[in-house]
Fold:
Amino acid sequence: MASSISLDAGSLLALVLEGVTYGFSVLMFIGTIWALTYKQRMQDVSRPIAVVAILLLILSTVHIVVDTVRAENGLVKYRNTFPGGPVAFFADLAQPTVAVRNVLYVLQTLLADGVVIYRCYVVWQSVWVIILPSMLWCSVAVAGVGTTYSFARIPSNSGNASVNEQGQPVQWVTAFLASTIATNLLSSGLLAYRIWMIEHSVSTARANNDTMMPIVRVLMDAAVLYSVVLLIALFCFVYSNAGEVVMADTLMPIISIAFYMVLIRIAINRKDHNSSTIGMSSRMELGDFQQVRISQFTRDDGTAVYGTGNEDRPSTFTTKSGKGSPEL
Structure:
C-alpha cells in the first residue's frame, strides 16, 4: 500500500501527536499519584505501584526527548548535509536514536504487560492461570530484543524506510506486536472475568450497592484502547504505510494512559464506597509479596454476608494499618 505521507512530514506529525498524548499521560500521572497518596499516610502508600507509575513517566519522557532530538537532527541540523536530505535521514533506521527509541518502547511494553499479569495473579491467586500470559510475556521480550538487534543491523542503502525494514526486521516487529496484543487481551480478559465472577457470586447476598463493575469496565476500556492502537500500528507496518511512524511514537504515552486510568478508577471506586467492596485485597512491600486473599464473611449458617456493617465487610485495600492504596 503506497503512502501519501513523506517520512519527514510523518515524523513531524508523529512528534506533535506524541506531544499531545504525552501531555494527557502527564495529567493522568498526576491523578494517579493523587489517588495513591490522598488522605494516606506515607507508610500506607503502595510504593511498588508508585515506582511503576514513575518509571512509565520516565520512559515516556525520555522517549519524547529522543524523538525531539531526532526530528531536530533530521529537519534542521543535517537537513542540507545528510545524503538524500531529511527523507533519507528518517529512512536510516540504523541510527543510535532509533535504537534508543526501540529499547525504551520494549522496556515500557514489558513493564506494562508485567503489571497486567501481576494483577491476574492478585485476583486469581494461582500460578497456573498466569502460565500462558507469562509465556507470551517472554515471547514479547525475545521479539523485542530481536527487533532492536535487527534494526541496528539494517544497512541504510535506501531512502525508503519500508525497503530498509524488509527481511528480519519486519518479521521481528510483527512477532513483537502480535505477542503484545495477545498478552494484553488474554491477561485483561482473565482479570475482568475473575472480578466479574466474584461480583456475580456475591451480588444477591450483598446488602449495599458496593460493586466492582466500574473497575471491570475500565479494565476492558484500557485493554481495548491499547489493543486497538497496537492493531492499527501492526496494520500500518505490515502494509508499509507511513502511518506506522505516527503510531509507533504515540504508543508510548498511550501505554502509560491505559495503566493510569485503571489505578484512578480503582481509587475512585474505593473512595465512593468508603474503602470497601467485594473483598479483594492485596499488599505489596518492597521485595515481599504478601498473600492476596479473595475472602468472604459468612454467618453461622454459611450464608455470605456483605454490607451489613463494617465488621462484616472485608476491605478491598488493606494494609497493616487498616488503610491502603489501590493495588489491583
Observations:
- Residues 62 and 152 are 19 Å apart (CA to CA).
